[in-house]
Amino acid sequence: MNWSELSFGYLPTDYNVRCYYRDGKWGDLEVSSSENITMHMGATCLHYGQEAFEGLKAFRGPDEKIRVFRVDENAKRMQTSAEAILMEAFPVEKFKEAVIKAVQLNKRFVPPFESGASLYIRPLLIGTGPKVGVQPSDEYLFIIFVTPVGPYFKGGFKPANMVIMREYDRAAPHGTGTIKVGGNYAASLKSGELAHKMGYASVLYLDAREKKYIDECGAANFFMIKGNTYATPESTSILPSITNKSLMQLAKDMGMTVEKRPIALDELEDFEEVGACGTAAVITPIGRIDDADTGKQYEFATNGQAGPVCLKLYQTLRGIQYGELPDPYGWTTIID
Ligand code: PLP
Ligand code: COI
Questions:
Q1: Domains and CATH numbers, the chain
Q2: Whole-prediction pTM value?
Q3: Strand pairing category for 282-291 and 160-164
Q4: Which residue out of 68, 71, 78, 221 has the highest number of ligand 1 atoms within 8 Å of its CB and is therefore the one to mutate?
């Protein structure tokens, strides 16, 4: 395996972990070596979008230990997603157990430290029981598969360009944007592909109601730096990113002021550094944001390099994830 050349894609691994909810209870964790699932053609995940997923990563440190980052947070967020679309929530402890099992069984796919790659862990929860009327399923399937990955945005820690297009929304205010369900990603596919064709790494979505405030990118939260301030949008249509939550803590620890508030697009030019953050994106500095509707361009990393604050946050986060720096908040779980 050419670990350092990996992109963010699917590669088969040895095993996945599954658990079924039937007759009102969750069964035991099962191990499978099949990449396929069989389900009823009337399953609610196929018709009415009863589907939620998560994304987290395992890292191999210079000490050879494998660490998983903030697994409790992903477990809790998946419960929030499940409850919001009336699926049976998967128990937090069982989620952790399943993550550990999936990583242990596929240890040989955790990339070496030097490669900068990691093992992406994808938990999935779907309604599998048949319904023709719009109703929640009586049966559910929880699966975790893993796959080794490189950077989500080409170039990794190199500045990426993003585009604003008011014609497309990802999620409505008070809709499903705050939970991690497939429908949000379906809604972002067309605009995302269009942005790629236009040469951008991603769309930067504005709030759907007024198109006045910044929401987030298609698969990552958004943050901005000005002097000693770390600012990130507050909105009823963006996903609460675990990476962003971690960066807010790290920024505070660096003595920065952290602001989580509605951020108007008009304010963008006041900021010195801006970036996207998420499990897949890690921190991706943003070089330029083009407003495709007005033609306005917002330039940041004009020298093609990430700014100093983005760099420090990136190094601190990566340091904790790979076990090179102390982990004062117990964010990592070591897998034996
Ligand atoms: N926003 C969206 C829409 C995402 O899909 C993701 C990825 O999970 C994020 C933000 C970042 O969240 P996290 O840092 O928890 O991975
Ligand atoms: C993640 O960062 O885990 C994501 O889910 C982003 C994307 C691959 C959907």
A1: 3-149 (3.30.470.10), 160-322 (3.20.10.10)
A2: 0.97
A3: parallel
A4: 221
